[in-house]
Amino acid sequence: MKNKFFEKYFVFTPYFWLVLFFFIPLAIIFKISISVSEWGMPPYQDIFLFDNGFKINTTFENYVYIFSDYYYIGSFINSLILALISTFFCLLIGFPLAFYIATSNIKLRNILLVLVVIPFWSSFLLRVYAWKIILQNNGIINVILINLGITSEPLQLLYNQYAVIMGIVYTYLPLMILPLYGYLNKFDLNLIEASKDLGLNRFKTFFKVILPLSIPGVIAGSLLVFIPVVGEFIIPEMLGGSDRLYYGKILWEEFFVNRNWPGASALAFTGIIILVLPIIIFQIIYSRWSEKNEI
Amino acid sequence: MKSNIIKSIVIFSGLLFLYFPILVLIFYSFNENKRVMVWKGFSLRWYNELFNNEQIIEAFIISVKIAALSATFATILGVMIGYSLVRISKIPFKSLYIFLSSTPLVLPELILGLSMLLFFISLNNLVGFPSSRGQLTIFISHVTFCIAFVAIIIQARLTDFNKNIEEAAMDLGYNYTKVLYRITLPIILPSIIAGWLLAFTISLDDLVVASFTTGPGANTLPIVVFSKVRLGLSPEVNALSAILMLALLIIGIIYFYFNKKFKH
Predict the structure, then answer these.
(1) In the predicted model, what is the mean pLDDT of residues B132-136?
(2) Nearest residue of B to residue A255, measured between CA atoms
(3) Contacts of A231 in chain B (CB under 8 A)
(4) Per-domain residue ranges for chain A?
(5) ipTM of this model?
(6) Between chain A's N and C termini, which has fewer beta carbons within 10 Å?
(7) C-alpha to C-alpha distances, B79 to A144, B75, B97, B188, B189, nearest whole angstrom
């Protein structure tokens, strides 16, 4: 006997909240992005006008505006490149770490996993701030380099794109390791032995056995890093310089400094489309993969 | 033998990379010098100044209040979603339901913050509420994006939960509500606590969404900290970091305790 009232209550309470406070706000972003901008408060015209009969007052000007100006496109591209590079380094560091944790004995495995994820629990902002301290001109890295005689003058490590990549790889690494570990953990270690017995060397074992079986983990981890990094605002603001402008900063300034709400909304909505697509693609790949591998 | 050495080196350097910045931060919080990077001697001076800094204390109280409230709401709604997705087959527009409850996990906070702000402004123009932004609007925004994190934990827990126990209880005469409150919820309680803790830390740590939805009298701790360290270093923030890091690490350990318990 199922209680219909209860089911409805459980489904619709959060449904109502999410439609009201998540779906409608996203719809409002779209609405404002196709509104005509004007001086005033709010700085856009209504999309439905009733003064001289009913009229729909929409425009794609805002999209044309951001897509025809390299200032916006360039920052988008910068962010995508930044996200690609950061994801690559997270994978490069995260994969061996996740692999070795997954192949440890069970007691050690749990301890290591907790150790890897715990820093993720401490404040994001403060972990970025820690890098600001480390990379200072008189910070610990410069002190070591000077004492080793590698450089005589302190290097300018802060306020450039490399510091931004460093900060991102550091803060997002646990997000890469977790899903990778999740897949590598299910992995039957005997397969590695079997492939060695069959004469494959380490290199081939990695590319023909380990990697293909961990593809969903690689994709999941990469998306968890890639997508938020494209919109990352805090790290470039704290560690970055004026050498590169990123999407997050442009969006922030378009809204708060230029007060161009339709333009900022068009930027945000373009971001949603660009970022939500890979999620859908991933879900398709993942469901095909799980059908094929019967998991 | 050789692969064991490589393994130890990889794991050790990975952990070093993760913990080194945190240790540096804690180390420098004990520096007497006002110039953060020049070591002058061990001192608790900045801890003392921190506890006398009313702006930071006030921001801390506001942040904890918002985090506790939004974590509680997000947990209730997140449990409902997790339960619905695993146990209830008839959900109207199920793909929309999944989309709404999972997208906040990856959507950049900046877009989320902007959409919330524009929503509150439009709502105010339409019905005159909320007339000003502040703690309430931050609370609503935090609930909205914390729900997804709780839902995913509950969903995972319910998926590997043995349904036979629930069916056995029904066979023994428990009705649907009784099974839920006497059997299902108590069994997944550790995951519910874990979800609450995760939502609490996410809300406590959020800067971007709070910056968009804040208003007079609602400067949360990350907003205050960010304004202090955006352009330089602050010895008080070092002391705050050390305390906050340790507190959050402890919450993290408790989280793992609850999330792992009853699993094996």
Answers:
(1) 88
(2) B114
(3) 107-111
(4) 69-259
(5) 0.88
(6) N
(7) 50, 6, 14, 10, 10
